[in-house]
Amino acid sequence: MQSAYKVFAYLIAALVVLQAMMIAFAIAGLGVWVDKDGGVLDKASMESDLEFTGVLGFAIHGMNGMMLIPAVALIFLIISFFAKVPGGVVWAAVTLLLVVVQITLGLLGHENPYFGMIHGLNALILFSVAVMAGKRVSTATTAASASATTHAAA
Amino acid sequence: MKRRWGLVVACLATAAILAPLGWLWWNSLIPAQYSVTEMGYADYGGGPTASDMAGMHHDAVSIDTLTVGTDRPADVEYELTARQERFTLASGRSVDGYTLNGESPGPVIRATQGDLVEVTVTNDSVPDGITLHWHGVDMPNAMDGVAGVTQDAVMEGESFTYRFLADQVGTYWYHSHQVSHEQVIGGLFGTLVVDPPPGGSSTTAADVDKVAVVHIYGGVRTVNGEEGDVPVEAQPGDLVRVRVVNTDNGPMSVWTSGAPYRVVAVDGYDLNEPDPVAGQATTVTAGGRADLEVEVPASGVRIELGGNAALLIGPGAEAVPATEAPREFVDFLTYGASQPLPFDPADADRHFEYNVDRRPGFLDGRPGLWWTINGHLYPDVPMFTVAEGDIVVMRISNTSGDVHPMHLHGHHAVVLSRDGEDATGSPWWVDSLNVLDGETYEIAFLADNPGVWLDHCHNLPHAKQGLLAHLMYEGFTTPFVMGGEAHNEPE
């Protein structure tokens, strides 16, 4: 279960990296489409099936962020109940909370761009917390074996 | 022992998370077959309830009896064949999608007021099945063309004949209402124009009458299937009427370069004493129509359709510089001159609320952030129940964070107010209303067309995501079901 905890923690971190890559890919593609292909973006075209290199980034960012990452974070929390990683439940709960905050900020960004700015910051916080949670497994294992050694010595 | 208790706590915590989620998931599942008349909950809008009216009618009347009858011969007949295929637009671009008689947009159907129109559509090769919905035409319910509500989807090899009286002059359109979020975006639609009888109308006769059906195929905006600047033949001094149809899923802006314009009709209804407009754009919502009129100056004029397609009218129009999209918009709340309404909304029999919002939850088992109607997720949505002859006021509010083009089938509603500001201009009749995030509209209509009528968002993927309710007439029922053997899937 400890290795599952570790895998899920790093999986969330990796998915956050993918999110950053996808949205940058999409925005860059949109820029090229408008600049070089004469594309015009208005509400009607936003709601249509746009076709340009990078447009898939928007769909992946949306589905990954709204469905996959919250599902993985929820499973991560459940794993933490069984994994016996010291402080593991708290780290998993904080990760899930940051995911919820991240989704909320992403949605609010559609109404006020400054929320989008914080969305970018929170992504890095979420990434860091997920990595640190994953690192606790090796720390915990080391600490546990260290303590076992001490006991044995005593 | 401690270890065992730890496991119990872990299991309980897991159950505490999964049980409510599982319960919500289970409850959201939609049966494989259901009738719209049995979904959600009845909302009587403060009027008499079903039990109040129980003594007033006998058995419910089936809506498939609501037709124009077969005794009268048709004045206008069309045969349409629907196919799913790769085809070439008028512009020469090849796209994958849907055609009617080999083309998209489908043929312009033209009738004269009073004509009986008969359109037979055959599904040649659309595996999901098709229908034709006559958007904006307040016709008998059985001809409304909604799979699972007013008919079964027309499967491959099958045909269906639509018969209706073209009694409203104006610009309308028709499109599939089976798997519409794919078929309409893919091109299964066309325009319907009902002209006034020759000589006998108050509408000023235009010298040139041009349909401009706008659609985005694969991110490319087209007008009548053409791209970019599309020339229209007209002489200086000519009065040109341009019938703009927005067949996309979001609102678009229309404006002119080189001459002012008037908006002479919205959603098929003429506006009273329309003022000349310059420096303002007209918003045409998804599914909506606007008829613009321009007098062609000696140097020509451009009708800008969203900024990447335009009609170039008159000789020399290619020299007219394109103008940027205005940030100011024609406000139909104050546009034109007021006129008395055919009914008094102050005497309304029913007042409905239609609030659009969204929240996280499950829609047919799928987790996500879904649209709600009055706080409820589909299919637990209100069934707006009326009796024939009722005057109905509906307050549509949007707190969902996105714009919604709200479309009521079978009726035209008049806008009474927006955000508490009363309408003072020409009566503004709509079948498709652009409701921005944060806005509240009050509209009124006369319940004079019995049946079961969808009342939904015309951003068709939104309808697919549950932003779909319906208007239900007391004493009427439908024999058709969603899903089922006919695979009816109207959204």
**Name of the level-1 CATH class of the largest domain in chain B:** Mainly Beta
How many domain units of chain B? 3
Mean pLDDT of chain B comes to 95
CATH topology of the largest domain in chain B: Immunoglobulin-like
Number of separate domains of chain A: 1
Tell me the structural class of chain B: mainly beta
Which two chains touch over the largest interface? A-B, 30 and 36 residues
Distance between the termini of chain A: 29 Å
Counted by DSSP, the helix tally of chain B is 3
Radius of gyration of chain B using CA atoms only: 24 Å
User: Portion of residues in helices of chain A?
Assistant: over 70%
Give the N-terminus to C-terminus distance of chain B in angstroms: 57 Å
According to DSSP, the number of beta strands of chain A is 0
Largest sheet of chain A: none
Q: What general outline of chain B do the C-alpha atoms trace?
A: globular
Low-confidence stretches of chain A: none
As a whole number of angstroms, the C-alpha radius of gyration of chain A is: 20 Å
